[in-house]
Amino acid sequence: MTIKIALIQLRVVDSKEKNLKNAIDLIRIAKKEKDANVVVLPECFNAPYTADSLQDVAEEIPSGETCRALSNAARDYGVHVVGGSIVESFSGRLYNTCTVWGPEGDLVATYRKVHLCDSSLSGKTTVAETKLFTAGSKYATFTVGETRIGLGICWDMRFAEFATAYRTMGCDLLIYPAVCDVPTGEQHWELLAKARALDNQTFVAFCSPARDTHAKLIPYGHSLVVDPWGRVIQRATEFQEIVVADLVLKELSDVRRRIPVFEQKRTDLYELKVDCTA
């Protein structure tokens, strides 16, 4: 089996309505013109990444405007849509939440960002996430065919144990919608994607917004897909575009047979305990 994944590196503007229209148009192109069966949007794709803007677009899941638009797009185009992330309002709290919609328009996974970020390599913290959001506490996976896919959001990519927990659950692809600033991206973006893929012998996809030099947090762009050998197989520029990659799943068994690190772990010395029913 092959998964054709499309990363939608869209340009985020100061209008929820325009961002949603752009996202839906690009989902249509990803499916109709590029034949993707999994389409991914960036973190906080429906508003600029500032505290005020994010609070203004908060909505309930699954009844909110963004959720309805993503559900309709997934159903209309018959594709899995990984809805980047949006600001979820629930019981008086805000969460940075990724929703996944199946080809019938059904909500098949919901993931609340576990690791919240207050750090910035550029020296400026645009959004102090621990003050704005409540951290999630659960893993989230979904399946496409027989392929199990694990979800993270941006800062989650820095935690090796988190990714390995997903591999322990049987995931073959890890998807991270993200907003990463340029200084951090130049140093760590590709390195982290390669590390998570190589450590866990999985495919890894990072999906960023397009670069906007007028934004308070200027996104790095360069959405990319890495294979289980740690090789970048597709990479975007900094501009708005759709990055498409064919994930040849038989490569997984090859790399795991030739480099059997998961069979060689010293569980007498260390062990990762995870709820595999997540």
Automatic annotation (TrEMBL):
It catalyses: 2-oxosuccinamate + H2O = oxaloacetate + NH4(+); 2-oxoglutaramate + H2O = 2-oxoglutarate + NH4(+). One of its GO terms (biological process) is asparagine metabolic process. Its EC number is 3.5.1.3. PROSITE patterns: CN_HYDROLASE (PS50263). GO terms for molecular function: omega-amidase activity. It comes from Anopheles maculatus. Gene3D superfamilies: Carbon-nitrogen hydrolase (3.60.110.10). Residues 3-249 form the CN hydrolase domain. It holds the Pfam family CN_hydrolase. Keywords: Hydrolase. This is omega-amidase. GO terms for cellular component: mitochondrion. InterPro entries: C-N_Hydrolase, C-N_Hydrolase_sf, Nit1/2_C-N_Hydrolase.
